[in-house]
Fold each of these.
Amino acid sequence: MIIHGRSMKTIRYSLLFTIMCVGWLFGASCAQEHPIEVEKTTELLAYLAADELKGRQAFSQEIVTVEEFIAQEFNQAGLKKLPELPGFRQEFSISEYKIRRAEGSLGEVPLASNALFGRVYSDSLHWTSEQIGSFKIHSIGADESFRARFNEFSSSAEASLIFVNADHSEIFSRYQQYYSRPSRTMKSVNTDVVFVLAPERFNPQDHAFDLRIYTDKTEHRLANVAGYIPGKRNDEIILFSAHHDHIGIRTAVEGDSIANGANDNASGVTAVIQLAHHFASQPTPERSIYFVTFTAEEMGGYGSQYFSEQLNPEQIVAMFNIEMIGKPAVSGPNSAWITGYERSTFGQILTDSAPDSIYTFYADPYPKQNLFYRSDNRTLARLGVPAHSISTTPIDVDPDYHQVSDEFDTINLNHLNNTIKAIARAAIGMISGEQTPSRIDPATVD
Ligand SMILES: [Zn+2]
């Protein structure tokens, strides 16, 4: 019954489309229709989740191969490159700074080599008591909670030097171990935050200090892959996205060390590629449709951050961020859930999109997992875009999430393909300009 109902719908849809194409023959050209079929979905997923790509980790050689593959698909689909880009890869770089050496004195006491950690975004830094004002001074006293004060200062938007009372030396060294990894940044200007374990009786109000920090800098090239279909209203954008990076090589389990990321997020990238082919084969849309796969989501979302700075977020009418749609949800196949459902009318539009369809969209069943904040939609939502992630993964019980077992074999290919089709169908009203989700209030997004 289900299969019958579904195929009837497909036939009606195809017929309608053929008629539209005939009309278009007299005016513009009409590309070959590209239905979303499980054969192509399978091919794409098999390629993206292959061992050869070694887990698609940002900064790896293999991720460039993945990006070139996606670019080739976008090219074949007939997408346009973003203005001023030579190809579909949207390259940018991030800098990594690792503290190599620190020296100086606090009062009369020379700085101990292990008495400091923090984030420094320049080749070297020189702070003295004479320059207070160009940076803020704070202290964490013996009777204060180190953890609470650390959290307060570590995300500071101002350059800050924090003197930590020597009573906190134990927890200080634990934090220091963790924060000895490099600080990464995409921007040239950033705020340095340095924690220093102060000697007994040192008081920055009364005693002079002089601090020099030297770093090692590494430059990394990264790239999103992006293309678009120009619409009649070219300043209104419907965005389909998924991150193409994953977590790379992990500790071996039964001889397998490659985290393939078949579900996370080869499934989402497969969807974006299929949607690109599908919509590009249709007559000129009312609104422009952008397709982007982000890099470095697993590393902190650098790809979506860079992308969001290259265009005007006010022009993005909706963002369909597709995350892990290769496994049926706990509620069963033919359903997908949407993060941040109540934050805009985007979710409601999807829920209402096909009342007679067996495919349903509903609110994220795992609010405690904070999934709205755990993917690239967050960056755009912060800018007011109705930006939501669509997923079907039973994340609370999935044994493969971020494991080397996230393999091609675990994916339900029919479910994946049906989900891509359902997303395509649910987006029609937004692409045609008939439906516009309400904006997300940026003030409510952390
Ligand atoms: Zn993911």
Amino acid sequence: MKVSTKVGRIEPSVTLEISAKAKALKSAGKDVVAFTAGEPDFNTPEYIIKSAEDALRSGKTKYTPTAGIPELKKAIVGKLKKENGLDYAPENIVVSSGAKSSLYHAFCAILDEGDEVIIPAPYWITYVEQVRLAGGVCKIVNTDEKSGYKLTSEQFERAITPKTRCVLINSPCNPTGVVYTKAELLSIAKVAEKHGVAIISDEVYEKLVFDGEEHISIATLTPYAKDNTIVINGVSKTYAMTGWRIGYMACPIEVAKAVSAMQGHTTSNACSFAQYASATAINGGEEFIIDMVKEFDDRRKLLYKGLTQIDGVKVVYPKGAFYVFADVSAFFGKSYQGKKITGSVSFADLLLGKGVAVIPGLAFGDDNSVRLAYTVSTADILKGIDAIKAFISELE
Ligand SMILES: Cc1ncc(COP(=O)(O)O)c(C=O)c1O
């Protein structure tokens, strides 16, 4: 059957392709260190599972209000106030089936056909596909080592056209792990205000920050930013709940109403008992998060150190999320077992032959690099680094 032009132009996922190859190798009995998974390798904490179980047993299995149950909205409002310094009413919150869903609804709610969205690269590929699906046009702004892989306010201002509708900020960032400072965000917020540009702030990795780094929500910085930002967050990364599919947005009331109306005709409410469990998660203590962040921090240091010791590999120092983004372009043009490395995809493909799976940077709009997720054990990190070293020493 013919598919629509709109959907037909979605690019196949490079991430899924390499992950599938790694899986196939694993099931064929090959030892593979997979630095590919964008999800915590921890189990959801027991108190959250128990809460879902209680919800299920007490009949919380029916439709809920489209924009979310009052208990969860209340927990989110409380969290945004206490942790982020953001004042919202429950009416400003829309709960969706994962932050990915919240993002898509946000783009649909504010973009008219042909509106431009400024996206700093490297970026999470989903933004690009979602903007296109929502009828928007991506205006990619490349960032590099010089700006610490962050969008500067000057770059942002230069990219603005009469068609610009919004800018996408993802801090901490997938795939680079960089975290924007308050001053950097403030200068972006000021440019947004000067040109009447809206902001979508994806904060799903907010709890995963290291070295005493502080996560700042851009919406807190000016009254304009508060009134013109859609804050996106969820429970996936913070509570190891990727499969539960609960995300949310905090936004101006007219956007919340529009999204709620749209959601009412697409997905309806997010999973009922997962919403109850998410309320418990958000209202619960920080103990699990502290332990998880500590473990990620140890792995981050180990992986960063290991990669920086390899001649030719240039690594962005990651201060957040659970990724390391490494520039491997020094090896382009070399060959492994007679096969030439021409870019990040062939680098990743050939490295897989050595038992290490990484995501090609092409998937994030940067073909010079690869992304490694430290969602694996320290033993695997050490094994992976040794294999990468061996791979590189065999290049001709
Ligand atoms: C930057 C970023 N935003 C949003 C999401 C979506 O999270 P979820 O839909 O699981 O809530 C992800 C997941 O990988 C992500 O990396």
Amino acid sequence: MLKIAIIGGGAAGMSCAVMLARKGFSVALLERGARLGRKLSATGNGQGNVTNTDMRAEKYFSDDRDKVARALARFGAEDTVRFLESMGGIFLPDERGRVYPAGRQASAITDLFRRELARLNVAVRTEARVDGIVRSGDGFRVTFGGETLCSDAVVLAAGGKAAANFGTDGTAYALAENFGHTVAPLSPALVQLVCDREGVRGLKGIRVDGLLRVVRRGEEVCRFRGDVLFTDNGVSGDAVFRASSYARKGDMLFVDLLPAVDEARLRQTVKGAGEDCLLCIVPNGLARTVIRKAEGRADKLIPLLKSYPLTVESTLGFDRAQVTRGGIPLSETDENFMSKKRKGLFFAGEILNADGECGGYNLQWAFTTAHCAAEGIAQL
Ligand SMILES: Cc1cc2nc3c(=O)[nH]c(=O)nc-3n(C[C@H](O)[C@H](O)[C@H](O)COP(=O)(O)OP(=O)(O)OC[C@H]3O[C@@H](n4cnc5c(N)ncnc54)[C@H](O)[C@@H]3O)c2cc1C
């Protein structure tokens, strides 16, 4: 029976461990933290948005989107739901296609994994930070905290560089670099945008269901409808996270603060009732800011409401980002995400150079690549 070492006890590592153990492999799962699945338990604001019914490669950024498409065709959203439900849960989509556990508790998904890993006798080692993987005959020697484990194949599922408080500080890329892999440039994605101070002054804490447009040199780059939350130095929320995948320093953001009401109706209401009526139309602080900025001019009021301008200055960086853009290029792996540089070395999850939009796409990538790696190992 082949022995498999999986490095990283996140969504990808735990899934791959379950899939391989179900195929009859002897699996060791090595996690540097004190517990498995800490990041998974925090996903989707603690509710665990595991996938999306609108699953397609266009939702991903990668050096090889066609390979992403082929992998998703092998293990897509329905497969994810089937896989997770095979461990005991029930998963349901919301009105926007985002799939969550019925109980809306991400930690319950981690519990499903822990229970299944125990049932399948996977050797789980926590507080086992892997600091070396070296070739040993046809297999590998994996070292962690002075201990050594020999395996026939390795799955490197150690995540990216985003959200270091969950054990992902970017140091695991070096384990792949030792085999001659490169790392496509890393940047934070799905992250709060820092904007010009004047734009967000007085708006901290205000949340709207807005329509956000990113504009670069007069050209619209993308637009997203959803939550826009004003913070002390920028904007956050669902629509912003999605836009953050596209926005760059210097871009303009235009927020329609009231997308459900058209301009003509707004104009008519303000004309009849005066600018103070805004206090009943949008949150108080927002109304006051818009009125202040319009400087008493009715012709400025409506454009501010329908297209509130902000300038992007930066993002909040890796520590506050949900995912990492960049990583091990897909071009350096085969269809099962096995290294082209070293047979038996597989990759799964965020460590690879593919990241998705907000909405369940990144967990789907973890499950998809775990499946492909498990299939690849079965073919060794
Ligand atoms: C707050 C937050 C909310 C999110 N919400 C969603 C969401 O709702 N939907 C969605 O699709 N995506 C979401 N994401 C993104 C998603 O969680 C990740 O893309 C996904 O978990 C990546 O899975 P992974 O297994 O590849 O890596 P991770 O989950 O990051 O797991 C990697 C594991 O490897 C361990 N590790 C690292 N180095 C070593 C080493 N040397 N030795 C041993 N272990 C090591 C780490 O401790 C970690 O546990 C969210 C992310 C964050 C931070």
Amino acid sequence: MGLRSDHEERVVGVVQASRDELVALASELIACDTTARDPGEPPREEERLQRILEQRLRASGAETELWEPEPIGHGHPYVAAELDFDGRPQLVARVRGSGGGRSLLLNGHIDAVETGAHELWTSDPFRAEIRDGKLYGRGACDMKGGVTTLGFAVEALRRAGVQLRGDIVFCSNTDEESSGVGGWAAVRHGVAAAAGICAEPTGFDVFAACRGTTTGVLTVPGRAGHAEMPQPHWRAGGAVNAIEAALPLIESLRRLRDEWRTRPDQRHALLSPSSITPTIIRAGQWSVTYPESCTVTCDLDYLPGSVDEAGTGRPAHAEVEAWVCAVAAADPWLVEHPPSWEWIDDCPPAEVPVDHAIVVGALEAAGDLGREGRITGLDSWHDAATYTLLGGTPTISFGPGQLLVAHSVDEYVPVDDLVDHAAAVALLLMRWCGVAA
Ligand SMILES: [Zn+2]
């Protein structure tokens, strides 16, 4: 191991001797049902989980603040409908440094995706179980494992008697999976630092960039009429089948996706080109009636180069709209009854330079523990983008476990990953914030 001081040896020793405690804390967090919400759903056990963390971090010398943010909505791009935080508090815990060092944000989201049928799981998704050195349970890797290691790294420093020069800012927020509003609420509350890490399951790699993600809803108009009766031309009042009108437009989205794959402005060192995928289609009201409208919901993922000055994905939306509009121009019905787009839940892309000290520092800390990682990007989205783009805190994802098992039945995190990640974060804290003499 490439440890650089007695302090580092001592702190890593504390973490390595605390394997069972790490597993116990992760299991405690998994036992809290923090399934991500649909709008309007009541809170679950978000507060219980946050209080577990709050109590432990206080015992480690942190000043803590648990707060329910003001509702978010009112035109914020992340959310289509207003969302409140009643019963879903956010937590920030600050360990003050002695002065003269850089601050570091440690961030994790506490919501987890729904479990699906429990019978499909080998063990109860809310009762963590170890099999073959892996800790199983909903959220084990995405990302209660990471929240555990971030919190435990703070504890380990305290136990090893190491005082830092810079501040540690620990923040666990809700609503990453649902919308991204939890991270936004934290940023709006002033949660910031000189740099940050989100402990998403990167398997010790560093995600230095992510694509933006947004939902587009295309509505194609038709005109209702009896499906078993001959219909006059639509100009003479005849029916128009909205499904058939929509088909060339849907097909054109595939061509746009193909074009993006080959276009030079869609090349990014860490990310796939932009993509658009139809995911939900709704049309028709009666089996013997021409459908009067067809709505096609699409998932649009776009590159950091496709944002406007306000950080929204409007340029990407506009490109999709223009592309589909050009195809619709071939259909006289659609020329006179144009399809429309609605864009909702726009979570913007972000990137941190690959030579940024937080990127280099995280990889070095992991590498010094025998966990060689690489710099890569996330084609989906993570809270790190909010902290980077809107909070002024260059934030990467760097965490235990593999993204491939996130959101899956029998989700797990290797126990060795928990130990090594907690140790890596503790090392990074010492090197980034500086150790007080
Ligand atoms: Zn996650």
